[in-house]
Amino acid sequence: MLPDPRLRHAALALDTGTQGLLYIVGPLLVAALASVYNPAVALAVTTALGLAGTAAVALAPPSRRWRPEGFEGQDASQAQQLATPAVLLLFGSLTGIGFAIGAMNVWSIAMAEHHHQDMVSGIIPAAFSTGSFLGGLIYGSRTWSGTTTRRLIIATGAFLAGWLPLFALPGPYAAIAAVTVPGAFLTIVVACAYVTTDALTPAGRTSEAYAWLILAIGAGQSVGTALAGRLAEQPLASAALPAAGAAFALTVLLAGRRRLGPTGQRQRGRHCRPLRGRHKTP
Question: What would the pLDDT profile of 34-51 be if each residue is shown by its tens digit?
Answer without folding.
Answer: 778 988 998 999 999 999
